[in-house]
Amino acid sequence: MPTPVTEKNFAGRNRKSQSEFRKQQLIEATMDCIDKLGISQTTLARIAARAGLSQGNLLFHFQTKEALLEQTLRFLNDEYKSNWQDALAAAPENPGLQLRAMIKASFAARICNRKKISVWMAFWGESRSRPAYMRVCGANDKAFSDRLLALCEAIEVQTDARLSASTAALSIEGMIDGLWQNFLIGPSGFKRDQAIRAVFELVDAIYPGLTDE
Amino acid sequence: MPTPVTEKNFAGRNRKSQSEFRKQQLIEATMDCIDKLGISQTTLARIAARAGLSQGNLLFHFQTKEALLEQTLRFLNDEYKSNWQDALAAAPENPGLQLRAMIKASFAARICNRKKISVWMAFWGESRSRPAYMRVCGANDKAFSDRLLALCEAIEVQTDARLSASTAALSIEGMIDGLWQNFLIGPSGFKRDQAIRAVFELVDAIYPGLTDE
Amino acid sequence: MPTPVTEKNFAGRNRKSQSEFRKQQLIEATMDCIDKLGISQTTLARIAARAGLSQGNLLFHFQTKEALLEQTLRFLNDEYKSNWQDALAAAPENPGLQLRAMIKASFAARICNRKKISVWMAFWGESRSRPAYMRVCGANDKAFSDRLLALCEAIEVQTDARLSASTAALSIEGMIDGLWQNFLIGPSGFKRDQAIRAVFELVDAIYPGLTDE
Amino acid sequence: MPTPVTEKNFAGRNRKSQSEFRKQQLIEATMDCIDKLGISQTTLARIAARAGLSQGNLLFHFQTKEALLEQTLRFLNDEYKSNWQDALAAAPENPGLQLRAMIKASFAARICNRKKISVWMAFWGESRSRPAYMRVCGANDKAFSDRLLALCEAIEVQTDARLSASTAALSIEGMIDGLWQNFLIGPSGFKRDQAIRAVFELVDAIYPGLTDE
DNA sequence: GATGAATGAGCCTTCATTCAT
DNA sequence: GATGAATGAAGGCTCATTCAT
Predict the structure, then answer these.
(1) Which window residues (66-105, chain C) lie with Cβ within 7 Å of strand F?
(2) Are D111 and D77 in contact (CB under 8 A)?
(3) With an 8 Å Cβ cutoff, is D176 touching chain C?
(4) A60 in contact with chain B, both atoms CB, cutoff 8 A
(5) What is the pLDDT of residues D93-129, one digit of tens each?
(6) How distant, in Å, are the alpha carbons of A10, A13, A58, A67, A84 from that of A18?
(7) Helices and strands, counts by H and E, chain D
(8) Do chains C and A touch (3 or more CB pairs under 8 A)?
(9) CA/C1' separation A112–E7 (Å)
(10) Which among A121, A163, A198 is the nearest to B128, CB-wise?
(11) Closest chain D C-alpha to C41 CA, distance in angstroms
């Protein structure tokens, strides 16, 4: 009689996925609030209101406000990380192409948009005084930087480089970050491609022979 | 014996300057708090305690908390602005040297240190949701960017450039920002010179003939 | 056995009525405070203490202090209004008897007692500078005055009047108000009947033939 | 050598009168504030601002806020009292004429105007909870009522009265108060004469033969 | 799971009062 | 007499959290 078991399992999975769905929905609402109000004005009441459920229930899913914020940050982080890692995995084994893949991935619409950037900056702003945030943000950032550096080093030995690998990596990453910030201010639209082309231009200047490879 | 007059004048100046001194002292305390606690945990009570006077008196000098924060941001801004503008004024009329002066100034100990950077980032984090901050931060940033771009354009016509002026400016500014952020994490110490050298390296790569001029 | 349904309904009604009960209880506490301390000394802390619950909860039911005060005034107003309107509705269609019914109702124990009068006066005292109060107080007053005037006009055409309807109405209403004020000072007790008799005496003087009708 | 003495006296008188002038000016500012803001929003800061001097100096003249309010009320009271008493003193010894003089005086522009009435009501509103106010207001009121009653009694024995003296006095005083209140709401203008005529009409109705006397 | 009611700590702000100059 | 600076006690309000239903 497998039915009850299956049903139970199914019910169990269902419940679990329902709970996951709720959590995701609440994280989304949290990001909306942070985007529009800033972290200091983001209250449980407002998050609950935006998500359309009661404040009491909100704390049933996330035991504390801090937990909710941390999981929101963690979600952002995972999304960001898997974005460039997936791009790398999909790219050929060539360091130059991988570098370009990372750059291109950095401007993917899913992670590089007004709302997400706004939330990132809000967390960054608080990270200095909240070790838990710093840990997440920092680790993420470091993984990205390290990989960028490793690629630059790999490229350096293959081609004529006009910059040391470390400086090259710093300038590329800095430029990406700077362009991200511009997304908050300037008009939206087709800037994404433009941004990618600009960073590619820098890469070409640093590694003149890269494209010809 | 003009003593009474002088004394009177002095007293007059004293009154006013005393008030100014208090305000500066309070702005300093505010920055301390933001640095250590983040904006969301920075309360008037804590600022007053740090400055060593009553909360009531704090609001006698700054009518509202928001006003205090805004003036703190404005102070940071003025300091930052005058720093690079003074450096530019002191530099020769040569665009290349001026570009280097701006870069060097960006890492001056007075503005580029753990505390100040931490406060800047805290404000940036809130700026999305507080137009008043955005206005100050944005205007400041834009003046710097515009000047950098103008210098790159001036250099471009004089020497062989490996990058368009706009991309060059973006990468230089991005790299400066990226290095600033590093100040928050790594150990302090002699990184300042190192940072300047790294950006100079980028400039040299972009404008190969610049140094020989 | 419809018990569950009934119970559910009851529970439903219970929730809502419990909230209503709380609100009423809080309005009562507010009136107590205003009576004893005056509006300017009536604080949320004191109201909450008197009602026996926390200040936070007080503002959960009434979003703001002003809202609480306004609803208190509105309650007073509704009570006052329904008092004389019910009395009128219960009276025969005869203008003379209706006039007497209004007068009598004005001194009903439910609305004409030390506490309620004290609260009324407190609101009146603030009404000049708070348009919201003025609107409620004024509207109420006007409805009463208009009705009084209408009755005097109706009586005027039926009997010999020694005063124009408007003056009659003004003097009757003025006398009622004056007697109300006396309730704040003199000893309580049997003054209510005395007051009614005094106003009736005025009515008789103005409309000599009225009683004989 | 009378000069120094005189001068001293003069200086003394001057100082004193200057001080009196200041006090009067401050009382005036207080009434302005109460009129426009209500008692609960009337703060020393606002009074001082309106009077054009510093808050510190304000408390030099009146040691405490309560003292200032009480003296303001006392001023109002004295003005009111002397107004009807002077009118009585100027009137012939005839009770009927004296009654009319009192009524007429009640609507004198100096005491019966929007601002003054507004301030009176504000004090009345607070009087229940502030014995000091009650004492002043009550005493004043009582003197007026008593005199009115005495005149009614005097008239009663001279002429045919349609009302007992006490009821007559209550209705007359009530009508005056009611008309005062109307000054707060209705348009200003020539209502003063109209009000006097209306009360006279009531008097004529109560004491038919009075005018012919 | 879900909700509304309840709590208490803390926040920004106001304000009467004091005091040195 | 006059002023600005300073203080401390409330005051109204917000908010994360708890809890009974």
Answers:
(1) 66
(2) no
(3) yes
(4) no
(5) 999 999 999 999 999 999 999 999 999 999 999 988 8
(6) 12, 8, 14, 19, 29
(7) 9, 0
(8) no
(9) 42
(10) A121
(11) 9
- CA atoms of A2 and A4, how far apart (whole Å): 6
> What average pLDDT score do residues A80-86 get?
96
The dihedral built from the CA positions of residue D175, D180, D184 and D186, taken in this order, carries a sign that is positive
Alpha-helix runs per DSSP H in A38-130? 44-51, 55-61, 65-90, 95-106, 114-127
Which residues make up the CATH 1.10.357.10 domain(s) of chain D? 65-206
Instruction: Report A:86-115 residues touching B (Cβ under 8 A).
Output: none
* CATH annotation of A65-206: 1.10.357.10
D56 CA → F1 C1’, Å: 11
Model-level pTM? 0.88
Chain C residue with the nearest C-alpha to that of D166: C198
Residues of chain D with CATH 1.10.10.60: 1-63
Taking CB atoms and an 8 Å limit, are D124 and C126 in contact across chains? no
Q: Could you read off the pLDDT of A105-130 as tens digits, one per residue?
A: 999 999 999 999 999 999 999 988 88
Q: Which amino acid is at C83?
A: N
Whether chain C has a CB inside 8 Å of the CB on D178: the answer is: yes
Q: Which chains share 3+ C-beta pairs under 8 angstroms with C?
A: D
Q: Does A138 reach chain B within 8 Å, measured CB to CB?
A: yes
Tell me the mean pLDDT in the region D190-212: 87
CA distance D96 to chain C (A): 19
Can you tell me which residue has its alpha carbon closest to the C1' of nucleotide E9? C56
Q: What's the gap in Å between the CA of A30 and the closest CA on chain B?
A: 14
C171 neighbourhood in chain D, CB within 8 Å: 171-172, 174-175, 202
Tokens representing A113?
């948009």
pLDDT at position A47, please? 96
8 Å CB contact between B189 and A189: no
Q: Which sign, positive or negative, has the C-alpha torsion D115, D116, D119, D120?
A: negative
Average pLDDT estimate for B5-32: 71
Q: Is the dihedral of CA C115, C120, C124, C129 positive or negative?
A: positive
**Residue B84, amino acid:** W
Report how far apart, in Å, the C-alpha atoms of D10 and of each of B163, D6, D25, D206 are: 89, 6, 22, 56
Please state which CATH number belongs to domain B1-63.
1.10.10.60
Task: Say how many C-beta atoms besides its own lie within 10 A of residue C100's C-beta.
Answer: 20
The CA distances from residue D11 to A108, D15, D16, in Å, are 86, 6, 8
Which pLDDT tens digit goes with each residue over A3-57?
333 334 444 456 567 788 888 999 999 999 999 999 999 999 999 999 999 999 9
Q: Is the pLDDT score of B14 beyond 70?
A: no
Element (H, E) at C171: helix C165-185
**Cβ contact A125–B123 (<8 Å):** yes
State the nearest residue by CA to the C1' of E3. Answer: A54
Residue A149 and residue A158 in contact, taking contact as beta carbons nearer than 8 Å: no
> Which among B148, D145, C145 is positioned nearest to A175, based on CA atoms?
B148
Strand F close residues, chain A 65-94, CB < 7 angstroms: 65-66
What CA–CA distance (Å, rounded) separates A135 from C213?
94
Residue D1 has pLDDT above 70, yes or no: no
